[in-house]
Amino acid sequence: MKRFIAMIFIVVSALVFISCNGSPQELVEPDGNNVGAFVSYQQLGDYLKKFYQESSGRYFSNEAIMGMPEASAQDDGVNFDSGDRDYSKTNNQTDGVEEADTILTDGYYIYITSGNRFLIFDAVTLEIVYQYEAQEIYFEGLYLYQDRIVLIGSYYTYMLLEQPNDDTIESEEGEVFPYYYDYYYYSYNYGAKIIVLDKSDMENIEVARELVFDSSYITSSRMVDGNLYLVMNNYTISYYFNDDNFIPKYMDSVKSSSLENFEADQIYFMPNDSENFSYLILASFDVTDDEEADVKAYLGSSYQIYMSANNLYTTVYKYHYDYEAQIYSHSTFILRFSIDEGQLNYQAFAQIKGSPLNQFSMDEYEGVFRIAVTDYEFSQSGTITNNKIYLLDSTTDEEMELISELGGLGKPGERIYAVRYINEIAYVVTFVNTDPLYKLDLSDPKNPEVLGELYEEGVSDYLHPITDNLMIGIGRQAETNEYGWTNFVGVKIALYDTSEDEVVNLETYLVEGEYSYSAVTYSHKAFVYFAPQGEEFTYIAVPVSIYYNNYYRYSQKMFVFKVHYSGDLELVAQLEHFNSESSHFDSIEKAVMIENYIYTLSYSQIQVFDMNNNFEFVDSVVFNQMYYSIYDYTEVPIGSTETRSDE
What we know:
Layout: H1 2-15, E1 36-37, H2 41-54, E2 103-105, E3 109-114, E4 117-122, E5 128-133, E6 137-145, E7 148-170, E8 176-198, E9 206-214, E10 216-224, E11 227-234, E12 249-252, E13 260-261, E14 267-269, E15 278-286, E16 294-300, E17 305-307, E18 311-322, E19 327-340, E20 343-353, E21 362-365, E22 368-379, E23 382-393, E24 398-399, E25 402-409, E26 415-422, E27 425-431, E28 434-441, E29 449-457, E30 459-465, E31 470-480, E32 486-497, E33 504-512, E34 517-518, E35 528-530, E36 537-548, E37 553-564, E38 568-575, E39 590-594, E40 597-601, E41 605-610, E42 616-622, E43 640-643
Parallel strand pairs: 14-16, 20-24
Antiparallel strand pairs: 1-14, 2-3, 3-4, 4-5, 6-7, 7-8, 8-9, 9-12, 10-11, 11-15, 12-13, 15-16, 17-18, 18-19, 19-20, 19-22, 21-22, 22-23, 23-25, 26-27, 27-28, 28-29, 30-31, 31-32, 32-33, 33-43, 34-36, 35-36, 36-37, 37-38, 39-40, 40-41, 41-42
């Protein structure tokens, strides 16, 4: 391993490019394990040709490379006591690092993206004050920063080309008849599109800027102090090589009105899985000015990302098979890109065994990068699972040196289901039949240790700190049947006391129903929290989809709780957009809170409830029409509360 790392960084250091601000002084051939800039389209093309020849690519071309050139609102029922309004924010992983969301508020307006539409609603009247709609765009989220709105989306267009053909057929009697058949051809275009709107004059909102990345998908995005960072994958070269179309293209409206090729020195090679290629595209720009975006493409692949205020981390998986031992395993490359004056510049990487679950598996704290992984080894004798946390130095160039690792988390066969870092403390959940919630001390990076373990039924898929001593877990309740199999039997919302080494479950609310689930288990943006100023509690809102009566009945609700800082979990409302004329497709997806009102968002509408008046319905606005399935059902009380003690 050390020899492998040393070899990589001898090559990388020879490039003299680490800051990514200059061109390499000599031609260094990529080998799948190093990083560097291509010096020409010729070098890039030769590299791709060699790969597809060696992998027997079916679509390889032998041609020579040439130079690449309205709605209506109900009665007004919302009234705010003051002009300075308190409101909920998007659920970001890291303080100061914003993440895109599909619904945001500034206390005065509600901003939402819904399919191919972006809408702004007045928070008092629910009137639509602005709408942007484009048939070919699907909006994935938005950002708010000062007088800018940033829309993140993808576009898809196609053209139908019909080619009629004439032919004849002959019957058994020898008669000849004309026969017509048509071939249909489609021309497709797709990619990522970013639209920046100027809302300094709410009565005259204008498009300030557009960026288009051809044939690219947005993996993730972040915003820090008005600088937008985009992480995209372009798969056009994943399965074949085309001499005429292997250079990624993009358009930045501040410099051009049409797509342009990346320059050769904007394209870099990087560690890859040796099975296929894609372009990892990184772009960044200040949303408040007209400076040209900084854009780079890395030849390889990327999966999970994590971003701190100082660095962006991407992971690349690599798979191994030991023919002699007949063991199949995998490892993860971690690439660190520093944030320098709004630009992303490659700095260092490391290789570890195993792979992270999601972005919450990663964190940076006081110069240390922490990553929790599950490592599998498959062989003829079975599967060996190991869960551990690696601590790496995030301040060095070229190599992120391993500081320490802590393994042995979980029982045999368990994998990691949830991770949360809170400064020098980490919480890790592993699961097969019961849920061990580990509390780890990472204050000494060289000597991490387990402080305590809590075993309980079910599993937490998402952990969220409420105060320094209270944490919420959202997950699933589980039972073991007579055959020893684990079945999930409902959704659990658990409140934990984390003040001591041993975490204590103070209270658990169970939403019963096998196959019931919450969107929070796979999307932390579905979890809403709001701490009203001057109060001794935090509101949390959790959408839950419920199956009951032997799966014959379905319900979907937004469960709203008060988490009292005294240690109590209080259910205060179950909100829904259902009625006798509703379809289950109109589920509550998200919510925002302003002062004492909660605004719930579904596909078709926004509804408003007064939190100070027993969550009474106040108003609604329908902005998407739906085809309703009419059926009658009798609602039954759902959910139960369990209170745990320290005993």
